[in-house]
Structure formats: structure tokens, C-alpha cells
Amino acid sequence: MAGTTDGHVQGRWLRAHGVRVGAGAAAVVAVLALGACSGASEAGGAELERGESGVMPALERPGPEGFTNTEVEGVTIDVPDDWETSNEGGSLCMTPPGQPACAYGSVHLTPHAAEGHPQDWPNRDDAFHDDDGWAAETDRCRSLNTAASGDIGVDSATITYQDLFEHADGLKSNHTLWNVTCVNDDAFEVRMWFLPISDVLLYVWSADAQYDAVYDQIAASMDTTGYQD
Questions:
Q1: What are the pLDDT digits (tens) for 79-97?
Q2: Separation between Cα atoms, residue 85 and residue 98, nearest integer Å
């Protein structure tokens, strides 16, 4: 098991402290939107635009070129423009082109993740630190060739990477990658960014290697400022 890695120690420190390292632009927007009662703002605040009634904050932060900033339950994130999105049960699913919805290659953003899960996954017993913590149910292969069938079992799983990852709001999540081997010798990778104190989960169900850089860019853009307010 991976419970003795440096990432484990760092992750436990995060759970114990849960300190916000920085504040994102959405915090400034929230203050200004109360009728501009306070003139205070933090460095790096939201870009402002002037209307007939005075200075007002921009209502939406545009994503970088090729991305659209999207929100679910106060958590904002940049989604590639050519990816399909769906929002069910308070969870945002982002699916790359040409793939079935929310399956291979997809990214899932779930606020209140463990709170809303019947098994308290991935927070229960710090599952996100364990080799078998890549899913609540670990008996189904998710490789490209088997994901649709759903009837191929799993042989083993191993954490291949674990560290802290900083997001747009300054918070640092537990970032973990697993390599999972199926009984038919297929393999797939699962990626997770988890904030145990905030209980926000960003999850790549079965990673498509061609989107490695995209996954990191999506994760880096995540901002929980509105969710925390």
C-alpha cells in the first residue's frame, strides 16, 4: 500500500490544517456584488467593467483560449470547448470528443464528494492514499477496449504518483495516479485531485494519454472560492 509515501504525510498535514493559501478572483466578485459596500479587494482581483450605474464586476471569468469557464455548486473550472459537458446530481462531467458520455477519458468534478457517497469514498479511511483507493468499487476494468462491456475484472492496482497540486484558488489537493491492471492484461490509469477538508473531488475515470496536458490544465483552473463562501 502507499500509505507511507511522502504524499501521505503531506496529505495528512493538509487534512489537519486545511489552510487556504490564496484567494481567487471569485472572492472579490462576491464582495463587490453585494452593492459595492466595501472598496477592499485583494491583489489579482476580478477584472471590472463600468456600467450605467457605476463600476460592476464582470459576471463570468472567461477561460483561456479554447476553454470555457464553467461552474457547479460554486466551484469553477475551465472546460475544453470541444468537450461535451453534463451536470447531474451536482456533479459536472466533461467528456472528450468521440467518447461515450462520462466514460473513457472523461473528467468528473464533484463537490461534497464523500458526503454524498454511500460509502464515504474517497475520504473514508483515507482511501485516496491506498493502492485500492482508486474507486469505491474496484472490480471493473475501464480500459479503452473493455470499458463499454463492463464485465472484465481487475487484477491489481498500484499508486504510481502522489503529491500535492495547487489550484487556481491557492488550495492544494492530494493528487494521485493509479495504474490498474485487468484480468485480461489490459491496463488503464486513474487520476484524482481531492481536497479532503473541502470534500471536492476532481477525477479522471480512465485517462486517455493524449490529454495528459489538458487534464493538468483543467485541474489547475479549479477554483473553490465560491463553494467555500
A1: 999 999 999 888 999 999 9
A2: 13
Please write the tens of the pLDDT for every residue from 47-58. 333 334 343 333
Q: In 3D, which of 187, 97, 110 has the Cα closest to residue 142?
A: 187
Q: What is the DSSP letter of 63?
A: P
62: Cα within 13 Å, side-chain hemisphere: 5
**Bridge partner residues of 136 (DSSP):** none
Amino acid at 220: A
> Alpha-carbon distance 159 to 128, whole Å?
10
Under DSSP, is residue 116 helix (H, G, I), strand (E, B) or coil? Answer: coil
Q: Is 105 helix (H, G, I), strand (E, B) or coil?
A: coil
Question: Model's pTM, two decimal places?
Answer: 0.71
**Separation in Å, CA 94 to CA 143, 194, 202:** 18, 17, 11
Task: Please give the Cα distance from 197 to 16 (Å, whole number).
Answer: 8
- Which of 191, 138, 132, 123 shows the shortest CA–CA distance to 163? 191
| Pairwise CA distance, residues 219 & 82, whole Å | 17
Residue 206's nearest CA partner among 217, 186, 194, 191 is 191
Residue 159, sorted as left (phi over 0), alpha (psi -120 to 50) or beta, turns out to be beta
